[in-house]
Design a protein that fits this description.
This protein has 329 residues and is α+β, with helices and mostly antiparallel strands. It is built from 10 helices and 11 strands. Helix 7 (136-146) packs across helix 8. It binds zinc ion (ZN). Residues 293, 303, 307, 320, 322-323, 325 line the site of zinc ion.
């Protein structure tokens, strides 16, 4: 009996589902992936990686549908197993395409939507030097200008940030939000970002020091600069986890919103963090691949332990014999 492709297609379910997410599947454990989505303002990067994760499941689902089809053929046309198998085999490529086309699993978006709030940073791109007593007032007034603060209401908090941040660093705002809030799928770029009750701090990511305070009741708006937005776990020596060892929800009072259109806002400089992160990645790759360390790389884990030597005369510290990098005590 000659059975046409159309006749077989008619036996396929109208909708197929090729991917079933596991109960705990989400992007939670993939901060780098989230960061790439934010940086590129697109979910494409997820779908590239994602294809690999669920490929096998998709294959076996398709196989399942093809097997079911054989049974349906046998019943509908009263034919033998072998003949049904031949019929499906003959059109396997066309049927596979059809099964993919009918796939209604929205697993890709679901995976993204299931990913809860993550700790994030918005950098003002403004660097503050190490703060000495005589510079305090000047730094304070510069900080207030950047953070759009008039009057003395938050002087206590801001002075605490300046005095306790030790090594200076970048002025940053801390909050928690779902990463996909910052991906605008139609590609249009946000124009402003507003924070209410912001948690702000000065953080030196190079050496892992910093301090933050909440400005309760304050609201401020900046120009939206995508390069200044970070999933905190992707930033080396980040404040929440590496420096302060905070609970992940410590900055939950900070409310964040982004949008389009005219809004009075402060311009921001592009943060150097993105370049720093890139350099960090390159240094790690170099050391892991070649075992060769780099002069002035202050991450002691990227120098061989056997090259490190403690020097007990002034100035005390640790020295790498291979590249001469010195960590003063
Ligand atoms: Zn070294």
């Amino acid at each position: 009996m000659e059975i046409s492709l159309e006749q077989i297609k008619a036996l396929l379910p109208k909708r197929t589902t090729l991917i079933f997410l596991g109960r705990d599947d989400s992007l939670e454990g993939f901060p780098d992936l989230m960061q790439r989505c934010i940086a590129e303002n697109s979910f494409c990067v997820v779908s590239e990686d994602w294809d690999d994760w669920y490929l096998e499941q998709e294959y076996s689902s398709v196989e399942g549908y093809l097997n079911d089809l054989k049974d349906s053929l046998k019943v509908s046309f009263g034919i033998e197993e072998e003949e049904a198998e031949m019929g499906v085999l003959h059109f396997q490529d066309e049927l596979t395409v059809e099964i993919y086309e009918r796939d209604d699993s929205n697993a890709f978006m679901e995976l993204i939507n299931r990913t809860g709030k993550v700790s994030m940073i918005y950098s003002t791109g403004e660097e503050f030097p190490e703060c000495y007593r005589e510079d305090l007032e000047e730094s304070l007034s510069r900080m207030k200008k950047i953070l759009q603060i008039e009057g003395t209401k938050f002087d206590r908090e801001l002075k605490a940030v300046l005095e306790n941040s030790g090594y200076g660093g970048e002025l940053e705002i801390f909050f928690r939000e779902e990463f996909h809030y910052f991906v605008n799928e139609d590609g249009k770029e946000f124009e402003w970002i507003t924070f209410k009750n912001p948690m702000v701090g000065i953080i030196a990511h190079g050496c892992g020091a910093g301090y933050a305070e909440e400005l309760k009741g304050h609201e401020m708006t900046f120009q939206f600069e995508r390069a200044n937005l970070f999933v905190e776990k992707t930033v080396k020596y980040n404040y929440t986890f590496d420096i302060a060892g905070m609970y992940y929800d410590w900055a939950d009072d900070t409310e964040v919103s982004v949008g389009f259109g005219e809004k009075e806002c402060n311009k921001v400089e592009v943060s150097e963090q993105a370049d720093n992160q890139k350099r960090e990645k390159e240094l790690t790759e170099k050391f892991n691949k070649t075992g060769v360390c780099t002069a002035l790389d202050m991450d002691i884990t990227r120098h061989k332990g056997s090259d490190l030597e403690y020097i007990n005369s002034f100035p005390c510290g640790t020295k790498c014999k291979a590249c001469q990098t010195f960590w003063i005590d």
